[in-house]
Amino acid sequence: MCLAKAYFKEGDEDELLLENVVSLEVKDDSLVLTTIMKETREIEARLSSVNFRNGSIVLERTG
């Protein structure tokens, strides 16, 4: 199973948003992240990058 960590890009740093992410759904102006424990989080952001090797998702704030 592939689990990821989601981060917000904050300048030169990445701020951890959510761990154990199993899915990411793109909606109109937001993203919905779901963890292995079925916790969901809908945020206004855009996808900046995904690194499958490191299991990281980097997002940028839009709202």
Structure in words:
The chain contains no helices and 6 strands. The chain has strands at residues 4-10, 13-26, 31-35, 40-43, 45-51, 56-61. With 63 residues, it is mainly β. It is globular. It has one domain (4-61). The mean pLDDT is 94. The protein has a 6-stranded mixed sheet with strand order 4-3-2-1-6-5, with no helix packed on it. A hairpin with a 4-residue loop joins strand 3 (31-35) and strand 4. The termini are far apart.
Cα-atom radius of gyration: 11 Å
Strand content: over 45%
Q: Helices and strands: which structural class?
A: mainly beta
Mean pLDDT: 94
The total of helices stands at: 0
Largest sheet: 6 strands, mixed
The shape is globular
The SSE order reads: EEEEEE
How would you sum up this structure in a few lines?
With 63 residues, the chain is mostly beta strands. Helices cover 0% and strands 68% of the residues.
